[in-house]
Amino acid sequence: MRPPLSKPVIASLLLSGVGALILIVMLVSESDKIAGKATHANTLDSAANIGRGDITSKIGGAFTLLNTNAQAISDHHYRGQYLLIYFGFTYCPDVCPTALARLSDALEQLEPTESASIQPLFISVDPERDTPATLRDYVRHFHPRLEGLTGSTAQIENVKRQYRIYAAKVADDTTTDGYTIDHSSIIYFMDKQNRFLTHFTDTQTSTDIATALKKLITK
Fold first, then answer.
1. What's the pTM?
2. How far is CA 34 from CA 89, 146, 181, in A?
3. Is the dihedral of CA 127, 128, 129, 131 positive or negative?
4. Which position has the higher pLDDT, 30 or 88?
5. Following DSSP, what letter does each residue of 81-118 receive, concatenated?
6. What is the extent of the structural domain holding 54?
7. Residue 14 covered by a domain
């Protein structure tokens, strides 16, 4: 059974955090989060250098996953829409729901026509536990247009490679299943052809994100 959202996470649905813009990707230890000790470190070299042209040209690519209705869906389904993508998992105690709350609030700050041009996606990095039904129940806590995607282990490994995402199982005796997921926490913004435009880290507020989105979609 998926643990309920914590009080800090519920609060984050209403209030965004405060932070400064930095162009690094951070590896978040979910097991330390549970213990109340958040740790961050640079992930793979390719991810840590996001912002460089040679790296950003390699972010994004073809994928086929399952939506919350257990229907196969590919990246081509979203062509013609901007994509706001976050990779995480439903058992994530704080980091993922906080990021999704910021993503959702940023979309709410846009004009309706601006928001409608952007498709928010939550892609699971925990295919063993995140079934389509589990994702369907989870994403309803956030933006009404947020779509959850999952798939087989092979499908998830493929999409992780395409987007240069780090995620790995870590033993955790405090959880029912005996493990959690360490993963990079980053929101990608892709253009209408699924090409990288920019990214947002946990240090940026929903207003920071909304401001950046407005500038990019009105160019």
1. 0.78
2. 14, 26, 12
3. positive
4. 88
5. SEEEEEEE-TT-SSHHHHHHHHHHHHHHTS-HHHHHTE
6. 23-217
7. no
